[in-house]
Amino acid sequence: MRQLPSLNMLRVFEEVARHRSFSQAALGLNVTQGAVSRQIKQLEDYLGVALFIRTPRGLELTESGAALSPHLGQAFDHIERALQSVCVPNLRQRLRILAPPTWATRWLSAHLREFCLRYPDISLSVTQQNSHDSLAEIDCQIRFGLTAASHCASQLLVMERHIAVASPELFSAGQPPNLRQFPLLHILHDGKRLKVWENWLAATGREGIDADQGLEFSTLDQVIHTALAGGGLAVIDRQMIERELANGSLLPITPVEVIGPYGYWLDVAGDKQGLSKVRLFTQWLNRVSNP
Fold it and tell me: Which helix or strand (DSSP H or E) is residue 273 part of?
């Protein structure tokens, strides 16, 4: 008979090891932080070694934890593939996702090939809210916001990481553009401007800049395309413009990066949480959002 600790303890350890955070692991597993802490303590007692230590930089794996983590990850991958091979006939269904248009276009589409290869029998339908007569048709929602939703299982996927960028044509002799010389580009959310410029200016200590001036747009994609055309300066989540930063079509004005306060959340209604297609999408999304 195999001498193994509870599978749940090992699953909790894998999640904490990936996130380096008890709180993030608790969100991913949809349990309390206290429950995560207890599972890790029980596993450490079982093994007789410490798996994590707290440092000024945050939670870190011990030598024993670092040795265990990759083997355990591979083991869970094998188990997942084995279960998938048995469950495939039950996965021939459509997964309906409600998502912000720019996130779907710029982030999800860049990763979909991996999902489709991994789960070929799950068909995705990615839509905006106004294309559905009833939200009951939606299996899960990606939501841009500040806090978790109270009416469903809600977990933070990733926080925004804002940087100020401009087209290369607005740089002069390698020097970044003057913030007073070009329009500031603003994004509207629920009819109001997001205070990304105010937050960035405060973080950089820039004073005397009128954050209210400039142009405003209803979607982030419009802001990005205007910045690409040299129509102004923009503060944008760098995760949405990875391609433009890589090919140099947008350049950072400074290296300053402002985290949050907005992020992308995964919301799943209670009656959808038990669906295999939702569970597999959630696990995949957590993995690719926090590599």
Answer: none
